[in-house]
Amino acid sequence: MSDKIEKSAVLKAPVSRVWKALTDHEEFGAWFRAKLENPFVPGETARGRIAYPGYEHLKFELHVVAVEPERLFSFTWHPYAIDPDVDYTDEAQTLVEFRLTPQDGGTLLTVTESGFDKVPKERRFEAFRMNEQGWTIQVENIRQHVDDAA
Length: 150
Fold this sequence. Notes:
Blueprint: E1 4-11, H1 15-23, H2 25-32, E2 34-36, E3 45-50, E4 59-68, E5 72-77, E6 94-103, E7 106-114, H3 121-149
Antiparallel strand pairs: 1-7, 2-3, 3-4, 4-5, 5-6, 6-7
Helix pairs in contact: 1-2
């Protein structure tokens, strides 16, 4: 098993549009299916709830690491932290990076999640497997979100 997941896609929308979809917390929530209570600010934690049917009871938290306009948005979180009876606070978090590169009138979006080797062994394989599938879906979600508006 690898320590990281990487997904890439060329989106028809310009970098500025993709950037807004990534970094505006309400737009992010629309395609990611999360209801966030506060905007993304480097060094702060954004909180809310999952909005995906069947998972609405789950908290959603991410710690914003970097916001480099129209180039890099990154955060850390607890991957596949879906058991409401488990306190994940002391577990290591993975790093999620969204990198944007202009390409042929659109945007090359590269999503990388790394640090799975630090996830507790008993959760590592399932967290990696589920997030690998999840990022495939989320890249398609953002594609539809920004391409529909392009």
